[in-house]
Structures
1.
Amino acid sequence: MKDDLQKSRSSTGAVRSEASHQAIIEAARTLLSEKGYAGFSIDGVARMAGASKPTIYRWWANKAQLIAEVYEVESARAIHIPEEMAVSQRFSLLLTTLWELWNNTPCGVAFRSFIAESQNNKENMELLRDQFMQRRFALPREILETAVRRKELPADTDIEMMLVMSFGFCWFHLLTDNLEKTEAIAPFVQHLFTAVPRKLRDGTETAP
Amino acid sequence: MKDDLQKSRSSTGAVRSEASHQAIIEAARTLLSEKGYAGFSIDGVARMAGASKPTIYRWWANKAQLIAEVYEVESARAIHIPEEMAVSQRFSLLLTTLWELWNNTPCGVAFRSFIAESQNNKENMELLRDQFMQRRFALPREILETAVRRKELPADTDIEMMLVMSFGFCWFHLLTDNLEKTEAIAPFVQHLFTAVPRKLRDGTETAP
Amino acid sequence: MKDDLQKSRSSTGAVRSEASHQAIIEAARTLLSEKGYAGFSIDGVARMAGASKPTIYRWWANKAQLIAEVYEVESARAIHIPEEMAVSQRFSLLLTTLWELWNNTPCGVAFRSFIAESQNNKENMELLRDQFMQRRFALPREILETAVRRKELPADTDIEMMLVMSFGFCWFHLLTDNLEKTEAIAPFVQHLFTAVPRKLRDGTETAP
Amino acid sequence: MKDDLQKSRSSTGAVRSEASHQAIIEAARTLLSEKGYAGFSIDGVARMAGASKPTIYRWWANKAQLIAEVYEVESARAIHIPEEMAVSQRFSLLLTTLWELWNNTPCGVAFRSFIAESQNNKENMELLRDQFMQRRFALPREILETAVRRKELPADTDIEMMLVMSFGFCWFHLLTDNLEKTEAIAPFVQHLFTAVPRKLRDGTETAP
DNA sequence: ATATAAACGAGACGGTACGTCGGGTCTTTTT
DNA sequence: AAAAAGACCCGACGTACCGTCTCGTTTATAT
């Protein structure tokens, strides 16, 4: 949308202020990391960003979506998982990197907040499930698919089940504020790849 | 007077009204199941229960603790998992029963709400992690320990890891409103028991 | 029959605890003088007195009446106005003494609080007007009546008007927190006695 | 952004809703006159006005100030005291008119309530004494000053003392719910002007 | 001496209001 | 057209008091 609007700048009036956009995201980031979920409010973001609430609501439908964008922006720096490693090592590295991200940036609070916020609202729940999580799944899914292609994993590996199990494991630690236990990752991954889950014979996958 | 003039004349004071207690729990239950987490408020509970807010706050520190009690009351009817079944079947049955409980009673909303609410507040987070979840772990832990005793599972089975993996898997479905996919349980359990996670050689367990 | 038997075995029961009575009055006094009207509550009195709220309500119908008793107890030490002085001097001394009492004891706050509280409630209003104030009027009325008897004042002096004018003048200073201006008393009294108000010819008095 | 990125893009914001303002004042007026001081609450006003409590608190610091505005609005219709009358007649007419206002409009309850409420709070006390009462004094003060100018009253008339005495007299009747005794006004005024209070020789006035 | 009846403390209770916060919408003005 | 400013309604928050109501415990009196 941003691009389109800017392109048609014949005489359609003012365009979205990128400065405001950045200020809002930055304020949201700061508020989340300093005050946590409990201290996060749209009012607070507007105050800190020097923006007005309507401006925020014009671009984000609600708190959850603003938080989601904070997460996405903050986690945008590409995670590089070297291709020459074995799949279990790649996966392990991915999870470790993820936990570090959650521990050391506002991403951890943002993710927890987004999950919590999504429980309020059917629309946000769908956003979380069908879009946000699908983007989170992309990289690990690619790693697993690559492994299948390379024959490191069986052709009928139930990749979706592996994703759900992995994120379930991570969410549990995230949502019980237990992310420091990074030593739990290795045994988990080891188990996961010891006997890779397979798709059911009828071909249906087992998880979302 | 407090100190010298009197001092005798003591009493234990009036006793908690069980009627109020029940009315409040029942109202909370109803509100959760009819309006969901978004429509749940202490004001609403007070209104519906015909109780006063101070009475609620006298006995529950906050929303989270009231919700937790709703869960515990509602889930109190004993779950019986026949002893003569194999451990993987017992575990599978437990998870299925749990999902049914979450699907068909206010327990599902209550659990989701309690998790969400706990993200607000360090105190509730600890309550969730150190007390509430330990009570949830009791039955599955016992099933696994029994299996170890019966030599169905190796002596060094990492039971805590299995618990975290299992609840992680369940939470993920719960928190993405995906509990209808009960057919995902079987493959999960199958994988879990295909290669049971073992404790590390140094004897430390791998999870919480 | 049974009733008769039971009736004959009756008693008057326990008697009012003077210790509690004293403790409550003392706590009320302290609370009023330390926290003022805004910080005065029956809960607070009960707490400080080590008494229970029902005990307070058993003996005083409401806040106002408790405050009134505090005033009466506190102001009980007899005020002596020498008889050999002229009436205007006696009156002036009385008012000065009164303002000192209000300034240096909880009486000032108590009186203000009692007046304020009486605005809430018809019953207390009548108490204030018909009983409490009549007791306050007693001494000045006596001084004026004595003066009439001694022929210092005309026989048709409108004593009630003088009382109302005097207390009106004092109330205004009390209720605007302006009691330090004691130098205003002398000119007031001087004016009051310069041309003493007389009763109307038809004999009816002019004030309450 | 607040500081550097932006700073232009400003505006004065939306303007106070006169409709809300009127609705709130009107509701306060109605509540006072129907339920009296005891039945007057900010919650009640909000409810009746269809306004929100924050809107009320945005414009009035507390109950007292809202009540004060009700009084001022309600008493705004100019009181006309014909200039050609003698000062004592003008004064008498003023007081009679005032008592009628208090008796026949919510002004009476509002004044009583404002006085009572001001006893709670130092800030409101000052408001009452230094602003509200000064506005009430304006008209009678002007009448007396005019009389001095016209030489109806001596040059050294202690006008402030006369004001305090007059309002003290009126307050006493107001605060003891005794305003029906309008026949008390005439003798009071007669006495007041029979021997007008004079300023002390040193030039200081005697009252506030 | 012993029953009785009232008073007592403790404190829970329903109610009402307090003053504040946040959510999301609307209006006005400025750019 | 977009934005800042900020007013608005709504409704919830957690707390304070009010006055009433159990409770079980003294305690003075009247048998």
2.
Amino acid sequence: MTRNAPIRRRSDCPLSIGLEIFGDKWTLLILRDLMLKKLQTFKQFQDSGESIATNVLSDRLERLQKQGIVTAARSSVDARVVTYHPTAKGLDLLPVLVEIVLWSARHEKTAAPPKLIEKMTRDKEGFIQELRGRFSVS
Amino acid sequence: MTRNAPIRRRSDCPLSIGLEIFGDKWTLLILRDLMLKKLQTFKQFQDSGESIATNVLSDRLERLQKQGIVTAARSSVDARVVTYHPTAKGLDLLPVLVEIVLWSARHEKTAAPPKLIEKMTRDKEGFIQELRGRFSVS
DNA sequence: CAGGATCCGTTTCGATACTG
DNA sequence: CAGTATCGAAACGGATCCTG
């Protein structure tokens, strides 16, 4: 137990990147669905384009909660439904998501919704602020 | 076998994100090392903090080349050494990397090099342009 | 010695079936 | 609708080998 420090200082400057989040395909897709597509429920994530397995979805949502990036709450309208929302920490991921989407739109030949891309490009900050407002963190 | 019928639900709004790149932990680390830490060789990547297995490193570098994000060339100085460089497509990833680093610096409790972070924050565009210049794509 | 390929035991992931 | 259990498939790490 007194096994001491791992000393992973092989190199100079860490420049850490949040691998828990960005290193995982599904996590990234969930965040996009949550913040850019404004999806909220388990089912909506499940049906959103790429088919994610339920256990994986469950697992990733749990991790995101543990990391304080999303919160879950039962819908006041329908008690069966759980709705997920981004926290402030989660909303801070918007710039990353926007840059990723912009890069993908430019370099991958996927059908991208041009209106949205154009808006992101023209007024990145405004676009992000608008989304932030929409989620009105308590 | 006959595992087809992927049910590709041509969903409403794709908003694609480059999963080949962003969904993978190691790829992301290599890109950071390449563009932000300015590492160039197989060995440097290998020794850079996180210990990546050689087979994995090899695999990711190959993928990145296939995607036109990095190029490989033998060093003119030492013929044994292969140096890797970002392409224009790769350099376009800089904004994403910067946003990821900034988010991580703010929300994860890792030792971040404050000078660099400060500069990124204060003059994001300038920082990116400076790096672009450093790689001088032919 | 640098870059990378290959083999292999182990861990992790994820597609289904199933349940509260 | 939201989430677990099962179990095969894939990825990983680590050692080793190969080629200039």
